[in-house]
Amino acid sequence: MTLMRHFLTAHTNKTAQSHRMTSTTPWFWQMLGSTAFICLGLVTEGWACHLPVNPTSLTFYAVQGSTNPPSQIMTVSNTITSPKTVTASDNATWLTVSPTSASMTTSAKVKAAVSTSGRAAGTYKATTTIKVATWCTYTVPVTLIISPLSGGGGGTTSSASLQWDKVTGTISGYNVYVRNAPSSYTRTITVGTGTSIIVNSLPVGNTYYFHVKAYNSAGEGASSNVVTKTIP
I want to staple 136 with a disulfide (CB 3.0 to 4.6 A). Which of 90, 124, 132, 146 is the partner? Predict the structure, then answer.
Protein backbone atom coordinates (compact mmCIF):
# COMPACT_ATOMS: atom_id res chain seq x y z
CA MET A 1 0.00 0.00 0.00
CA THR A 2 2.86 2.36 0.78
CA LEU A 3 4.40 1.75 -2.63
CA MET A 4 1.10 2.39 -4.31
CA ARG A 5 0.65 5.72 -2.53
CA HIS A 6 4.14 6.76 -3.54
CA PHE A 7 3.43 5.89 -7.16
CA LEU A 8 0.21 7.88 -7.21
CA THR A 9 1.83 10.82 -5.55
CA ALA A 10 4.70 10.87 -7.99
CA HIS A 11 2.29 10.63 -10.90
CA THR A 12 0.20 13.49 -9.55
CA ASN A 13 3.20 15.71 -9.02
CA LYS A 14 4.44 15.06 -12.54
CA THR A 15 1.05 15.95 -13.92
CA ALA A 16 0.97 19.16 -11.93
CA GLN A 17 4.37 20.12 -13.27
CA SER A 18 3.33 19.48 -16.84
CA HIS A 19 0.42 21.92 -16.50
CA ARG A 20 2.86 24.68 -15.66
CA MET A 21 4.50 24.22 -19.11
CA THR A 22 2.06 26.67 -20.66
CA SER A 23 4.17 27.27 -23.75
CA THR A 24 4.19 23.58 -24.71
CA THR A 25 0.81 22.25 -23.61
CA PRO A 26 -1.47 24.05 -26.15
CA TRP A 27 0.70 22.89 -29.06
CA PHE A 28 0.69 19.31 -27.77
CA TRP A 29 -3.08 19.14 -27.41
CA GLN A 30 -3.59 20.85 -30.73
CA MET A 31 -1.44 18.24 -32.49
CA LEU A 32 -3.18 15.43 -30.63
CA GLY A 33 -6.56 16.73 -31.72
CA SER A 34 -5.45 17.05 -35.34
CA THR A 35 -4.00 13.56 -35.33
CA ALA A 36 -7.19 12.09 -33.90
CA PHE A 37 -9.26 13.85 -36.54
CA ILE A 38 -7.12 12.60 -39.43
CA CYS A 39 -7.07 9.03 -38.16
CA LEU A 40 -10.85 9.02 -37.76
CA GLY A 41 -11.24 10.16 -41.35
CA LEU A 42 -9.03 7.36 -42.63
CA VAL A 43 -10.90 4.76 -40.61
CA THR A 44 -14.26 6.00 -41.88
CA GLU A 45 -13.10 5.74 -45.50
CA GLY A 46 -11.60 2.33 -44.74
CA TRP A 47 -15.02 0.98 -43.77
CA ALA A 48 -16.25 1.75 -47.26
CA CYS A 49 -13.68 -0.63 -48.72
CA HIS A 50 -15.66 -3.55 -47.35
CA LEU A 51 -18.76 -2.68 -49.37
CA PRO A 52 -19.84 -5.67 -51.47
CA VAL A 53 -19.91 -5.57 -55.27
CA ASN A 54 -22.04 -8.28 -56.86
CA PRO A 55 -21.26 -10.09 -59.07
CA THR A 56 -17.49 -10.15 -58.84
CA SER A 57 -17.08 -11.06 -62.53
CA LEU A 58 -19.14 -10.91 -65.72
CA THR A 59 -19.31 -13.26 -68.72
CA PHE A 60 -21.20 -12.51 -71.93
CA TYR A 61 -22.04 -15.12 -74.58
CA ALA A 62 -22.80 -14.20 -78.18
CA VAL A 63 -22.85 -15.62 -81.69
CA GLN A 64 -20.77 -14.06 -84.46
CA GLY A 65 -22.87 -11.73 -86.60
CA SER A 66 -25.90 -12.08 -84.32
CA THR A 67 -27.46 -9.61 -81.88
CA ASN A 68 -25.59 -8.40 -78.83
CA PRO A 69 -26.18 -10.35 -75.62
CA PRO A 70 -28.30 -8.71 -72.89
CA SER A 71 -26.59 -6.19 -70.63
CA GLN A 72 -25.73 -7.17 -67.07
CA ILE A 73 -25.95 -5.27 -63.79
CA MET A 74 -23.32 -4.87 -61.07
CA THR A 75 -24.67 -3.79 -57.68
CA VAL A 76 -22.64 -1.89 -55.09
CA SER A 77 -24.22 -2.08 -51.63
CA ASN A 78 -23.60 0.62 -49.02
CA THR A 79 -23.59 -0.83 -45.51
CA ILE A 80 -22.80 2.58 -43.97
CA THR A 81 -25.69 5.05 -44.01
CA SER A 82 -23.81 7.95 -45.52
CA PRO A 83 -23.92 9.13 -49.15
CA LYS A 84 -20.99 8.13 -51.36
CA THR A 85 -19.94 8.83 -54.92
CA VAL A 86 -19.54 5.83 -57.24
CA THR A 87 -17.62 6.10 -60.51
CA ALA A 88 -17.24 3.38 -63.17
CA SER A 89 -14.98 2.93 -66.18
CA ASP A 90 -13.82 0.22 -68.59
CA ASN A 91 -10.75 -0.51 -70.70
CA ALA A 92 -12.18 -2.04 -73.90
CA THR A 93 -13.83 -0.57 -77.00
CA TRP A 94 -16.41 -3.37 -77.07
CA LEU A 95 -17.46 -2.77 -73.45
CA THR A 96 -19.55 0.13 -72.12
CA VAL A 97 -20.48 0.82 -68.50
CA SER A 98 -23.12 3.28 -67.35
CA PRO A 99 -23.61 5.48 -65.49
CA THR A 100 -19.99 6.55 -65.19
CA SER A 101 -20.76 8.54 -62.03
CA ALA A 102 -23.57 8.28 -59.48
CA SER A 103 -24.35 9.01 -55.85
CA MET A 104 -25.60 6.24 -53.59
CA THR A 105 -27.05 6.02 -50.10
CA THR A 106 -28.01 2.35 -49.83
CA SER A 107 -26.88 0.92 -53.19
CA ALA A 108 -25.89 1.77 -56.75
CA LYS A 109 -26.27 -0.17 -59.99
CA VAL A 110 -23.76 -0.10 -62.83
CA LYS A 111 -24.82 -1.55 -66.19
CA ALA A 112 -22.32 -3.30 -68.44
CA ALA A 113 -23.10 -3.75 -72.14
CA VAL A 114 -21.02 -5.32 -74.91
CA SER A 115 -20.94 -4.96 -78.68
CA THR A 116 -20.00 -7.83 -80.99
CA SER A 117 -20.17 -5.79 -84.17
CA GLY A 118 -17.30 -6.58 -86.52
CA ARG A 119 -15.63 -8.99 -84.12
CA ALA A 120 -14.42 -12.46 -85.00
CA ALA A 121 -15.31 -15.55 -83.00
CA GLY A 122 -13.13 -15.91 -79.94
CA THR A 123 -12.74 -14.91 -76.31
CA TYR A 124 -12.21 -11.28 -75.33
CA LYS A 125 -11.28 -10.03 -71.87
CA ALA A 126 -11.56 -6.61 -70.24
CA THR A 127 -11.90 -5.00 -66.83
CA THR A 128 -14.51 -2.74 -65.28
CA THR A 129 -13.20 -0.46 -62.53
CA ILE A 130 -15.61 0.75 -59.85
CA LYS A 131 -14.42 3.40 -57.42
CA VAL A 132 -16.32 4.18 -54.21
CA ALA A 133 -15.64 7.49 -52.47
CA THR A 134 -11.94 8.41 -52.45
CA TRP A 135 -10.00 5.37 -51.32
CA CYS A 136 -11.75 2.21 -52.49
CA THR A 137 -11.32 0.70 -55.95
CA TYR A 138 -12.84 -2.58 -57.16
CA THR A 139 -12.05 -4.37 -60.43
CA VAL A 140 -14.57 -6.66 -62.07
CA PRO A 141 -13.20 -8.94 -64.84
CA VAL A 142 -15.39 -9.06 -67.95
CA THR A 143 -15.25 -11.88 -70.52
CA LEU A 144 -16.95 -11.88 -73.91
CA ILE A 145 -17.19 -15.26 -75.67
CA ILE A 146 -18.25 -15.12 -79.32
CA SER A 147 -19.12 -18.45 -80.90
CA PRO A 148 -18.95 -18.98 -84.68
CA LEU A 149 -22.27 -18.95 -86.50
CA SER A 150 -21.77 -22.57 -87.51
CA GLY A 151 -19.02 -25.16 -87.59
CA GLY A 152 -15.77 -24.85 -85.75
CA GLY A 153 -17.19 -26.83 -82.85
CA GLY A 154 -19.51 -23.96 -81.97
CA GLY A 155 -22.62 -24.98 -83.91
CA THR A 156 -25.70 -22.81 -84.14
CA THR A 157 -27.41 -21.56 -81.01
CA SER A 158 -30.86 -21.18 -79.55
CA SER A 159 -32.41 -19.64 -76.45
CA ALA A 160 -34.40 -20.60 -73.38
CA SER A 161 -37.11 -18.57 -71.66
CA LEU A 162 -37.15 -18.74 -67.84
CA GLN A 163 -39.64 -17.45 -65.30
CA TRP A 164 -39.75 -17.77 -61.49
CA ASP A 165 -41.73 -16.65 -58.46
CA LYS A 166 -40.83 -13.37 -56.78
CA VAL A 167 -38.89 -13.72 -53.51
CA THR A 168 -40.38 -11.93 -50.52
CA GLY A 169 -38.21 -9.51 -48.57
CA THR A 170 -35.56 -7.01 -49.65
CA ILE A 171 -33.42 -8.21 -52.55
CA SER A 172 -30.96 -6.60 -54.96
CA GLY A 173 -31.59 -9.00 -57.84
CA TYR A 174 -31.28 -12.59 -59.05
CA ASN A 175 -28.42 -14.76 -60.31
CA VAL A 176 -29.37 -17.26 -63.01
CA TYR A 177 -27.08 -20.30 -63.20
CA VAL A 178 -26.77 -22.27 -66.45
CA ARG A 179 -24.88 -25.52 -66.97
CA ASN A 180 -24.93 -28.64 -69.08
CA ALA A 181 -23.44 -32.11 -68.77
CA PRO A 182 -21.17 -33.77 -69.52
CA SER A 183 -19.26 -30.94 -71.24
CA SER A 184 -19.55 -28.62 -68.20
CA TYR A 185 -20.71 -25.59 -70.18
CA THR A 186 -21.43 -23.07 -67.42
CA ARG A 187 -22.37 -19.43 -67.09
CA THR A 188 -23.93 -17.08 -64.55
CA ILE A 189 -26.27 -14.25 -65.52
CA THR A 190 -27.04 -11.45 -63.08
CA VAL A 191 -30.42 -9.81 -63.62
CA GLY A 192 -32.38 -7.12 -61.80
CA THR A 193 -35.44 -7.65 -59.65
CA GLY A 194 -37.57 -8.91 -62.54
CA THR A 195 -38.72 -12.52 -62.52
CA SER A 196 -38.04 -13.64 -66.09
CA ILE A 197 -35.19 -13.76 -68.59
CA ILE A 198 -34.40 -15.10 -72.05
CA VAL A 199 -31.08 -16.95 -72.03
CA ASN A 200 -29.47 -16.54 -75.43
CA SER A 201 -26.44 -18.09 -77.13
CA LEU A 202 -27.02 -21.70 -76.07
CA PRO A 203 -25.20 -24.01 -78.52
CA VAL A 204 -27.50 -26.65 -79.93
CA GLY A 205 -27.20 -30.36 -79.23
CA ASN A 206 -27.16 -30.07 -75.43
CA THR A 207 -29.43 -30.37 -72.43
CA TYR A 208 -29.19 -27.35 -70.14
CA TYR A 209 -29.91 -27.06 -66.42
CA PHE A 210 -31.10 -23.80 -64.89
CA HIS A 211 -31.59 -22.58 -61.32
CA VAL A 212 -32.00 -19.16 -59.72
CA LYS A 213 -30.81 -17.54 -56.48
CA ALA A 214 -31.88 -14.19 -55.07
CA TYR A 215 -29.19 -11.98 -53.53
CA ASN A 216 -28.78 -8.81 -51.49
CA SER A 217 -26.00 -7.17 -49.46
CA ALA A 218 -25.91 -10.18 -47.13
CA GLY A 219 -25.21 -12.65 -49.96
CA GLU A 220 -27.22 -15.22 -51.88
CA GLY A 221 -30.35 -16.99 -50.71
CA ALA A 222 -31.41 -20.57 -51.23
CA SER A 223 -31.49 -22.08 -54.70
CA SER A 224 -34.67 -22.56 -56.66
CA ASN A 225 -35.59 -25.92 -58.11
CA VAL A 226 -33.65 -26.97 -61.20
CA VAL A 227 -35.34 -26.97 -64.61
CA THR A 228 -33.96 -28.39 -67.84
CA LYS A 229 -34.28 -27.77 -71.56
CA THR A 230 -32.89 -29.81 -74.41
CA ILE A 231 -31.90 -27.94 -77.54
CA PRO A 232 -31.65 -30.55 -80.33
Answer: 132
